[in-house]
Amino acid sequence: MIVILKQNAPEDKIHAFCRELEAMGFQINDSKGSDTHILGLIGDTKALSESWLLANPIVESCRRVSEPYKKANRKFHPDDTVVEVGGKVKIGGGHFAVMAGPCSVESEAQITGVARRVQAAGASILRGGAFKPRTSPYSFQGLRAEGLELLNKAKAVTGQPIVTELMDSVHIPLFLREGVDMIQIGARNMQNFELLKAVGRTDKPVLLKRGLSATLEELVMSAEYIMAAGNPNVVLCERGIRTFENSMRNTLDISAVPMLKKMTHLPVIIDPSHAAGIAFMVPSLAAAAVAAGADGLMIEVHNDPAHAKSDGAQSLTPDQFDTLMETLCPEIEFFGKALN
Ligand code: PEP
Ligand code: MN
């Protein structure tokens, strides 16, 4: 961390400030030029807040020179992390996973039918929302605990691990009892820090989706929360962000993939369904994700999109998903990854 002091800062205040920083464990590299006075702080500055420094009247500005995240940082962990889901599916480090299924679990016939179809097409993890974060309280809120039971029935049929969204930490015991294999933290909860700490205290893999207007550093800091609480099994998901463009639901930030891979060692997947909001765009965005180096995809598939209880417009039919997987399989191999 570099701290630039104000030109007229009194010597006694500078002295007191330096002693305070030293007492906090930092070494100070003091460099005074003709018109700038800079303090270089050496040590672990991740817990040092910029606003605390700026609140001191002698401080002009400050700049971080190392990232505030350590556990998620590629610099301290150069190898790709491989996250294992349900003891059989690997994500990251050359392993590519496709998670597919409906936005919401609606009935036993629906979820088991879709589960069979996506498995046959090459998906390795079944997705389905039981607790749904809806913009309107009058929209379908999900089947909740019953939805988890139905996901389990589908799992009994296909044997595939399940990923589903957790919105409240009170449901963690229920999720663990129901054998949820991967806990999804949705975009709207990316900075629900108590929820992040709570899933960090479990040993379940976590799928952390990027917030609608979160920077990549904020996303990685949220992953850091989960890891700092003890759970290293985090997969990051870019799912589109809010921009000025309004012809589609969100804008897929494809550049997030190479940048996140530079920043962190965690696997990165893309959700083209929520990014686009329209089914016809999903195959192009999925192909772009593979080319950009993503470690997986999350795709919404519904047996009858026109009658889906949520996100029908962006859902592929099982037939459309078959066609997509046929084109993606050789592409995944071409880009050097192995499909689970
Ligand atoms: C979902 O995956 O169904 C979902 C609600 O996603 P997001 O949090 O990205 O909106
Ligand atoms: Mn959805």
Task: Break the fold down into its secondary structure elements and pairings.
Layout: E1 2-5, H1 11-23, E2 27-32, E3 37-42, H2 50-54, E4 59-63, E5 83-85, E6 89-91, E7 95-101, H3 108-121, E8 125-127, H4 145-158, E9 162-165, H5 172-177, E10 182-185, H6 193-200, E11 206-209, H7 216-228, E12 234-238, H8 256-263, E13 268-270, H9 272-276, H10 282-292, E14 296-300, H11 318-334, E15 338-339
Parallel strand pairs: 7-8, 7-14, 7-15, 8-9, 9-10, 10-11, 11-12, 12-13, 13-14
Antiparallel strand pairs: 1-3, 1-4, 2-3, 5-6
Helix pairs in contact: 3-4, 3-11, 6-7, 10-11
The chain binds phosphoenolpyruvate and manganese (II) ion.
